Amino acid sequence: MRKRHIGLLAAMPPLAGLVLLLVHTARVACVSIPIVDASVDAAEEPTFAIDREEELGEESGGRVGEDSLVAILLGGQGGHVLAGSFHVHTTASDGRGDLDDVSRAAARAGLDFLVLGDHNVDPPPAHYRDGVLIVPGVELSTSAGHLLAAGAERTAGWTLREEDPVGAARFAGGMAVLAHPVNRRLPWTGDWMSVDGMEVVSGDSLIREAMARPFVRLLPAVASLPASTTIGWLSIHHRPAEAFESWDAHPHLVGLCAHDAHGYEGYFGPFQAMQLRVRLSAPLPEDPKSAANKVVKALMEGRVWCTLGALADPAGFVLEKSFEPRSLTAALRYRDWPDSARPRVLLFRDGEKVSEGIFEASVSPASDGLYRAEVFLDLPWIWGRREFLWLFTSTIQIGGE
Question: Which of 96, 143, 233, 278 is the most exposed place for a label (fewest CB within 10 A)?
Answer without folding.
Answer: 143
